[in-house]
Amino acid sequence: MIKLSPSLLAADFTKLDSEIKKIADAGADMLHLDVMDGHLVPNISFGIPVIKSLRKTSDIIFDTHLMISEPHKYIKAFADAGADIITIHIECSSDIESTLKEIRSLGKKAGIALNPDAPLSRILPYKGLFDMVLIMSVYAGFGGQSYINDVNAKIKEARQIFGPDFDIEVDGGVYLENLHVPVEAGANVIVAGTAVFGSENPAETVKKFKQF
Ligand code: DX5
Ligand code: ZN
Q: pLDDT tens digits for 75-126?
């Protein structure tokens, strides 16, 4: 069974509390939190204070996707705010090895993300230092983009390299209609923003994803 991580980026920001409750009660495995700094990606979303506030309202696993240039400066702050999984981009400016080690030293799971044009070979030097790979199926920065099928080969390659039990997350442009594509390629953690929160009934949509 896949793990579903609905992205809060597509939720109604005037009622985050109830939006999260809806998807958590429906069986979502985690909540995907897209943090953007306007520097690594050309968009700004939300950050530490929002995550800290949301932590008080829900026990769901916080799957924190840091699209920021210098994550090493903020790892402790995100950990303290309540992040459970902290994913950094291979394209960021921080020292990758020490940043991944810091995430784990704080008792959190470490993830490494790659944009569609980054080959898997870029993250292999850090194998053993992360608990999840996040394969972007759109260029990081915006919700509501279309799934890039070219990444399927990378998902397959990752599954071969990391083995059957490793968490391989795919993020961007996944809907019920094309869910089979990343899953058949080998992904087991699926991010879905627009597909879930943009649907008429997010709870029903979560259940349908989970039935796949
Ligand atoms: C894009 C974000 C995604 C995004 C997914 O930079 O990392 O998590 O919110 O949104 P959808 O599912 O709408 O493509
Ligand atoms: Zn994301």
A: 999 999 999 999 999 999 999 999 999 999 999 999 999 999 999 999 999 9
- Quick one: tokens of 152? 């399927």
Question: Does pTM surpass 0.90?
Answer: yes
End-to-end alpha carbon distance in the chain:
7
Which residue is catalytic, options 29, 63, 167, 171?
Answer: 171
Exposure of 186 in the CB half-sphere (CA atoms within 13 A): 21
Q: Write out pLDDT tens, residues 175-204.
A: 999 999 999 999 999 999 999 999 999 999
Which residues' Cβ are closer than 6 Å to ligand 1?
Answer: 7, 9-10, 32, 34, 65, 138, 140-145, 171-174, 191-195
User: CB within 8 A of 93, min separation 6: which ones?
Assistant: 69, 70
- What atom in ligand 1 is closest to the CA of residue 195? 12
| DSSP state letter for 134 | E
> Residue 56 burial by CB count (10 A; 0-12/13-18/19+): exposed, middle or buried?
exposed
Count Cβ atoms within 10 A of the Cβ of residue 210 and give its class: 0-12 exposed, 13-18 middle, 19 or more buried: middle
Classify the C-alpha dihedral 39-36-152-85 as positive or negative.
positive
Protein residues with C-beta less than 5 angstroms from the ion ligand 2: 34, 65, 171
- Among this protein's residues, is 34 annotated catalytic? yes
